[in-house]
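>> received
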Amino acid sequence: MNRRHMIGAGLAAVLTVATTGWPVRAAQEQIDVASIEKIKAMGLTPATSQVMEIASWLTDVHGPRLSGSPNIQKAGEWAVAKMKEWGLTSVALEPWEDQTRFARGWSNDKFYLAQVSPQQYPMYGMSSAWTPGTKGLVRGEAILVTSTDPDEVKKLSGKLRGKFVLTQNAPEVAAYFDPQGRRYTPEQLDAMEKPAAPRGGGDPAQQGRGGRQGQAGRAGGAGAAVSAPTDPCVPAPFNRNEFFLKEGVVATLSTNPRGHGLFTNGGSAANDPATTLPAITVAAEHYGRMVRQLAKGIPVTLEADIRNTFHPKPTMFNVVGEIRGTDKADEIVMLGAHFDSWHGSTGATDNAAGSAAMMEAMRILKASGVPLRRTVRIGLWNGEEQGLIGSAQYVRKHFAARGTPPPAPPAPPAPPCPAGMVANNAGRGGGGGRGGGAGQAPLELKPEHAKFSGYFNIDNGTGAIRGVYLQGNEAIGQVFRAWMAPFKDIGMNHLNPGNTGGTDHGSFDNVGLPGFQFIQDSIEYNTVTHHYNMDSYERLQVEDMRKNATIAAAFAFLAANRDQLLPRKPAAPAGGRGGGQ
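>> returned
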């Protein structure tokens, strides 16, 4: 009897199969302990781990990796070359099928901002993505405009040319009374096991991540009753930034209440540079200082030289590669993480941490020589920050897609409206809601859908993996319980029946495929790093990164060598999952 079967029998003696209810006990899973120990030895040993070197290349050399930017292209090319060097096959920058999702890329090439009077000092800040620069060195007075009332704002007509507009009041910045870095306590982890635990696992630092994509559709199913608008034309909505642009404002400035030198960056790739105003985010301490000076009647003068470049029609891609399996090579196990980041820092915990861990997991599987019956594939996703686009594009191409939905009832023709007025569309037409709901096209499964086993994702920062979110897949809990047993000594031993939401595993779950996100210690994720300007290499936790790469490699190994595909949830009702496929 080979050792693999002996270990399976041994586990069965202590780990019983669950029938129903929670917590889930472990199944009689056959586990090749010798191979698991080989994976652990390579991944957890500092001398043989390469995860931090990979992370350094993705951050220090090729960060930030904003979607559609030259940097993410260079990072992708580096990742392809590295995985080929390791001996992976089918390694490529796989283009999205729909290249219309990004009309333009963007990069910041220079950022200089300073107050020059009444005192001179450099300011901490960054342009919002997909906004223009200043067209050279410019100097102008700062002015506070917090009102959004059209009549109030329009009173400033003729008074804004050459000004920097501060668009909000100074926020109150709270002291750090609590530690910014946290790990789960045993009690918090135990609470996750309960079906009633809050989405996100009961940790406030992890909540609020859901809802970017794949949630229930908004109101408005096909055939909804409508009423004719009372007035055919209504005043056009007031666009304050459009007014500022026409009035000759140099740039707008904003901040957030986090303080301590931290600020977040965002932006929309849909921005048209011809009609978009330069927008700058600065740290609360500098923003508040300007507001308080202005409140004292002291003029404030700023100086800026910001160079931003738009890159038309960038080729959007995902980074892919695989290790071919043996007798079940046509069946697929996937590891993945999103590759893109925001641009205020180098995108270390969001999400070079996940990308580096998954690349290292693939390297461990290849270098250790452990047997793989199924093909193990990696996907590093572009466009995640814009709504899980890259993973959704990949799933649509390879596994399942929705056809063209039935047309919505046509709306009555819009009446001609005079200048300054627009058609009143309130209640016009029925139309299908966004996401799920009546009128959604049926899901069209592709051959690979039936041969897919599971997808594992890392995208909750640098924190150590402590377990798995089951995504409501009760049948798989007993499997994962057995798989976690070899990792109890490094802190992985909990299951959450729910879903953390808002990560790329949702693209797989949306089409009925087993897709999972790991439970991770939050560390400083939502306090210091997630979309903040401090998301740099220094925030990565070395031991945690080694653990995560090792666990990901082991889960891929176990899924690849299981006799059966991983169990799936029962099929959802038609239109029940939503999700941008």
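>> The chain has a mean pLDDT of 87.
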